[in-house]
Amino acid sequence: MFTISQAAEYLGVSLNTLRRWDESGKLVAIKKDGGTHRYYREKDLEIFASDLMKFASEWIQDGVEFPGTFYCPTSSIFNARLTKMQNALMQKPGFEKLYSLIVLIAGEIGDNSFAHNLGKWPDTAGIFFGYDLAKGIIVLADRGLGILETLRHVRPELSSHVAAVEVAFTEFISGRAPEKRGNGLKLVREVVIEQPISLFFTSGDAEVRMQGADKVFNVTRGQRIVRGCLAKIEF
Amino acid sequence: MINFKKNMKLQLEKFGGTLISREFGSEAFKAFQPTLRKFSKDEKLEIDFSGVLTLSPSWADEFLSPLLNQLSDRLILLPSDNLSVHATLRILQEVNKRPFNIKS
Lengths: 235, 104
Prior knowledge:
- By secondary structure, chain A is an alpha+beta fold.
- Helix content of chain A is 42%, strand content 20%.
- In chain A, a hairpin with a 4-residue loop joins strand 4 and strand 5 (137-142).
- In chain A, helix 5 packs antiparallel against helix 6 (99-117) and helix 6 (99-117) packs antiparallel against helix 9 (184-194).
- Chain A starts with a strand and ends with a strand.
- With 104 residues, chain B is α/β, with parallel strands linked by helices.
- Chain B is 43% helix and 18% strand.
- Chain B has 3 helices and 6 strands.
- Chain B has helices at 22-37, 57-71, 83-96; strands at residues 7-11, 18-19, 44-48, 54-55, 75-77, 101-102.
- Chain B is globular, with a radius of gyration of 12 Å.
């Protein structure tokens, strides 16, 4: 059993957050013999922390707090955590060579969030970066401006999220001034098509789903409007 | 970092094993400029990728693309079996519309 302090450290949140989550039923604590002290089973914390997509989407939609272990406030912290993930992934059987392409994809998507929102974050700076290598899943998200807004600086004629995401993944943006814009997402698309890697990417109401045996690149209009960007990589 | 023989060799891993961000690629390029200024016009620069675990197009576009502009054919890339190096070089050649001189 973990005490509330140990649980707070494990999840990277404050004691008050854990108390609030207990009261709201989001993460219910155990109270021994009707006492007031809160305790947590390690297994319960592990399960709670494993729903990466839920944390990421609730954060970008509604600003809901998530375990701090997934938060990268700066590009340097993201790079450090990505390197740590890389070192673990290259040990995984079957990924001895493929690891570098998975790290490339996660790195490009995460770095894009920082590069395009530097000094422009609407509220919370930084990204959500969570992964579960046993399950083969990486989730990245940001509460930034989103693809349409950032691309409009170089392509003012863009009128929809779908068109903007299409451009981001397929076209080389020439004359990159005033903004340095990479071509990383084009490579992400190519690598996902060629390799046993799936990608779900959304920004605004645009969605990209590249999965299954017959992967094709296609941007569709989804049901909901997502703030910033959200990506799920599976392998 | 550098052996002053006929060709100058740069071990890219001196900048790190995981070369991902555009910002760090740009920093690396700036850091390398003083060395490059000592470089004579008939010398070639060989880039050695050994030890690099992941190379991304953002990092490489800030480092290798401007080097290619500066050195042209005098920039020589040594062969690598790393998949991210291959993929990144492929896209950069497409972006820059010119091939790298890759030693076979």
